[in-house]
Amino acid sequence: MAKRITIDPMTRIEGHLKIEVEIENGKVKNAWSSGTMARGFEALLLGKDPRDASYVTSRFCGVCFSVHQMASARALDAAFGARVPWGGTLLRNLVMGAEYIYDHLVHFYQLSALDYIDIMAVADYKGKDPELNKVKDKVVGLVKRGDTFPLTPRYKPDEFCVNDPDVVISAVKHYLDALNMQIKAKNMGVIFGGRAPHYQSIVVGGFTQLPDINQVARFRSMLDEVAAFVEEVYIPDVVAFGTGPLLPLARAGVGGGHRNYLSYGAFELNESGDKLVFKPGAIFGLVGTKPQRVEPFKPEKITESVRYSWYKKETPKHPYEGSQVFDLQRPEAYSFVKAPRYENVPMEVGPLARGLVDGDPTLLSLINNHGVRPGAVARHAARAIETKKVVEAMYQWCDELTRIMTKPGFRIHDTDHWDPPAESEGAGFFEPPRGALGHWIRIKNHKIANYQAVVPSTWNASPRDERGVRGQYEESLIGVPVPDPENPINVVRVIRSFDPCLACAVHLIDPKTNEIRRFMVE
Amino acid sequence: MAEIFHGLSRRDFLKFCAGTAAALGLSEIFTADKIAQALQAAAGKPPVIWLEGQDCAGCTISLISIENPSPASLILDKISIRYHETIMAASGRIAEEAREEAIRQGGYLLVVEGSIPGADDRFCMVGGRPFREIVKETADRAAAIVAVGACAAFGGIPKGTPTKGLPVSKILPGKTVINLSTCPVHMDHLMGTIVYFLVTHKAPPLDKLGRPLMYFGTSVHDNCRRRAHFDEEEFLTDWNDPKQKEWCLLEKGCKGPETYSDCPIRRWNNGISFCIDAGAPCQGCSEPEFYVEQSPLYAMGPVTDRILAKKAAGLIPRKDNA
């Protein structure tokens, strides 16, 4: 007899997400992913000055705050016919690189780590390290005062939770250290971006701030500190967990999903843009590391289905033709996330997709030589691996910027293409930390006539599509062990491994409006 | 003190208090020591319930961007976060139970991030319930209510969407709601407001829009370092031109003269920079008109036309005459 449980709110993610799963014989048999909040930004933009879009869409999300500004500016670049000068591209890349480091550190330590460690094991630490003893005193002090919020309450630790006091105490110390490191990474972006969250300086045509040499020096010295943390703490932690206590979870490939992967490619390493940190492409049906089919990325293959989403019913459409007219009355709908599909199939996007499409040797070696199968643990590993790649590129960009910025005629903005064209259209693509992001704009009479964004979490958190095929979160939950329905910790692990960021994706309304359906066993 | 401000030396703590006192304009009334005593007297760590409605989590990210105290110290030592969807370990039912228990105990600080849908409750549901109901029931036993960010304070961007986002004050008539209205909230504004409340047990003096005067009492324009160029009508038109680098951003749509916030003095992210320093026009994010009535953001429009008309009429005096 199957039991259905609901986890709502799904916490430690950005946005509002509800996950429902049906459990039979200790495993997930079926799953539904639905967000529970809508704002309707695209509808708001209709009729506005197109240049507003990059500012407004940054507010899609305060975590991945300015990748939308970037994708939006690129859509506008295309529509306005703007050619961003190399100086502008370098500055955009530097602030986006800072975003990568900040975002991946926060995701691993603040948003995910608590699912994998039994934090109270620190009380059993017997070592002499004074720093670690400070951490022990801090946590024990909280327990003594009876106020361990927000570290508790929590799901019960299970067999995958690390409870070795030495490992846990250093993990907790790194959790606290990472809080300071993410500020440093964020502050790097602020030097050029103006403030965070919500950078200010990425606009159509390029960038708004002519940098000075002191800013680059400051950025670089902060990069040194952050890069050291990535190298000496973050990567070793991911390796220690992934090859140690989590290896069984990693080898089982728990949370794998459809095993189709899409990356738009990102981060120019040279002025012509033919060398990228992440190359674009699509992988269909990965078995081991052998895809059944690999293809170049073709934007025209993207469509969105709203069969199970709370929008006015229509056939699947390309984003240029898409609309956002809410319809709360449709009985079969259960999510306001649309269902994007590529060649009509669901795709996983994000660090694992980027690494696989890029053929990253470290990631492939994890899969081929260590038996790690694509799934929840592999996603954490892919993040750490790519953070290092981005850090290396950031040093190159710093050097290149320093080289060109002192030359006369240094440019950061295409001022000739600042005024909105009368009629045009354009698409902008980027690979934010969470995965493939696209913005599409149509301009008529110098105003926005249509605006659509297909965001990473729309790909991953989508509901079923036109043909009833499950979205990536939903599929990745099938078969996940849930021995105790009161303690669905594996479900939250799998979902959090995607780094859900729902505000930009989700527009879900529960059809049973006033019915209280919290986490319960039916 | 050591009990409450674990991990922070007394000297550092007093420095924090002194900085806060100066920021709040309290230096004559409250010495750092007095603030320290008041915080010590507060029973343990003040409990906080942080709700997220139609938000982007930008204010939450501001919260963990704080440097003094560090976010770890803030979260573990200074305040007791009983409920916060993005930070708390708990999920699902046990998360909701933590909130219910905190409400039963009462006396907490309620922080709301994000707006409340006005068009239909179904646009924001948490734990299967309308966000509007959750805010109302949590507000009942709160010691103070703070709306953080443009969305919670004035409706922000969602105000203009089909969901018709409402500010917190609209659904809590008769209650004092402290509006910290920049998009996102400035952490100094939030920390200072919390400290002020702990010391005085009341809201700081507010303007007619519910914003603390100590942060929102002067216009961005009054403190802008590009101000002299506004007076000389030197308006930046080309971001590539080093000569224009410090010129006034009015032609790029700056709303500074009609925007009230201390951004140019305080700046953002621990003083590193802010919008105008990055060559980007002020978009009036602290004002009730944000965003729809501030559009177009990057061009001359109704707001900038009005500013120029005021300038022509002598209503915006030159800085040296001010």
Mean pLDDT of chain A: 91
Along the chain, the helix and strand elements of chain A come as EEEHHHHHHEEHHEEEEEEEHHHEEEHHH
Strand-pairing-aware structural class of chain A: alpha+beta
Low-pLDDT segments, ≥5 res of chain A: 506-522
Please report which band the strand proportion of chain B falls in: under 5%, 5-15%, 15-25%, 25-35%, 35-45% or over 45%: 5-15%
Element order, helices and strands of chain B?
HHEHHEHEEEEHEHEHEHHHHH
Question: Main sheet of chain A?
Answer: 3 strands, antiparallel
Shape of chain B: elongated
Distance between the termini of chain A: 11 Å
Count of helical segments of chain B?
Answer: 13
Assign the structural class of chain B, choosing from mainly alpha, mainly beta, alpha/beta, alpha+beta, or little secondary structure. Answer: alpha/beta
Q: Could you estimate the helical fraction of the residues of chain B in percent?
A: 25-40%
Q: Number of helical segments of chain A?
A: 14
Helix fraction bin of chain A: 25-40%
Strand arrangement across the biggest beta sheet of chain B: 2-1-3-7-9
Query: How many strands, which pairing sense, and closed or not: the largest β-sheet of chain B?
Result: 5 strands, parallel
Distance between the termini of chain B: 45 Å
How are the strands ordered across the major sheet of chain A?
1-2-3
Unreliable parts of chain B: 1-9, 23-31
Structure summary:
The complex is a heterodimer of chains A (522) and B (322). Chain A is an alpha+beta fold. Chain A contains 14 helices and 15 strands.
Task: Please characterize this protein's 3D structure.
The complex is a heterodimer of chains A (522) and B (322). With 522 residues, chain A is an alpha+beta fold. Helices cover 39% and strands 15% of the residues of chain A. Chain A contains 14 helices and 15 strands. Chain A has helices at 41-45, 52-58, 67-80, 86-112, 130-144, 165-193, 213-243, 247-252, 351-358, 361-370, 376-405, 456-461, 472-477, 489-497, and strands at 3-7, 17-24, 27-35, 202-203, 206-207, 261-263, 266-268, 276-278, 281-287, 290-295, 302-305, 339-342, 423-430, 437-444, 447-454. A three-stranded antiparallel β-sheet of chain A has the order 1-2-3. In chain A, helix 5 (130-144) packs across helix 6 and helix 6 (165-193) runs antiparallel to helix 7 (213-243). The longest helix of chain A is centred in the middle third of the chain and has 31 residues, at 213-243. Mean pLDDT of chain A is 91; it is low at 506-522. By secondary structure, chain B is of the alpha/beta class. In chain B, strand 5 (125-126) and strand 6 form a beta hairpin. In chain B, helix 1 packs across helix 2. Chain B is elongated, with a radius of gyration of 21 Å. Residues 1-9 and 23-31 of chain B have low confidence and may be disordered. At the A-B interface, helix 1, helix 2, helix 4, helix 5 and helix 6 of A face helix 3, helix 4, strand 2, helix 5 and strand 5 of B.
